[in-house]
Amino acid sequence: MNNTAKRVSPLFLALLGVTVVGGVLASQDNTAARIAGVVLIVLGGWASSLCLHEFGHAITAFRGGDREVRAKGYLTLDPRHYTDPVLSIVLPLLFVAIGGIPLPGGAVWINHAALRSRRSESMVSLAGPLMNLALGILLTAAVATFTMPAGLAAGLSYLAFLQVIGFVLNILPVPGLDGYGAIEPWLSGPARRFGEKARPWAPLIIIAVIIGIPGAGVAFFSFAFWFFDLVGGSGLLARIGDSLFRFWQ
């Protein structure tokens, strides 16, 4: 086995580095530096979380019997291995910047025939959004536990809020999202064939509804903020972080 299939990708470490630099800048008293810092925290942190999300799928599949994920480089956290970089990283970052909607990112190709059971298949699908939820909880716990500058707390809170939205959105039982992937192994043959046909466009319809129908968007974000409060987040800090991140609006 090539050792490069086992090492953490330098690109992933670079994304973490961008996030850390953002944290330093967000801690400054200068307004411009604080804004730049929050932007870097959110962009670097969200891109890093996309890699961790896919890693969650891959490591669960590896433990469930699919040994091919290591050879494919999925365990290195390298964003280049998670399908097309534009669709997997750039487009989700663009949607976050425009509307605060964290699109599902890349995808790892799992050999489902190698998985030991339907339960393993379900756990592979759930591992990604659960990674987002875990990251959101860790970030909110850090903000609540440690005394930190207001800009840093706001940036981390907004990043945590995006993780929570990512979990809420991706756990929906809609074809193309991980929530559907968790129930798909248990569905009948006709239902699974319908899901395959709906997979390419169903998530886009969900996003279009959230963005295009004001009532739906309000309901979605109201639930997301309620859930964010439930896991210990500060809605006020998240909103401040959002305003600093999308400073042009």
From TrEMBL:
The chain crosses the membrane at residues 86-110, 130-152, 158-180, 201-228. The keyword Cell membrane applies. Keywords: Cell membrane, Hydrolase, Membrane, Metal-binding, Metalloprotease, Protease, Transmembrane, Transmembrane helix, Zinc. Its main location: membrane. InterPro entries: Metallopeptidase_M50B, Rip2-like. One of its GO terms (cellular component) is plasma membrane. GO terms for biological process: proteolysis. Coiled coil: none annotated. Its cofactor is Zn(2+). It is found in: Cell membrane. It is a multi-pass membrane protein. GO terms for molecular function: metal ion binding; metallopeptidase activity. Belongs to the peptidase M50B family. This is Zn-dependent protease.
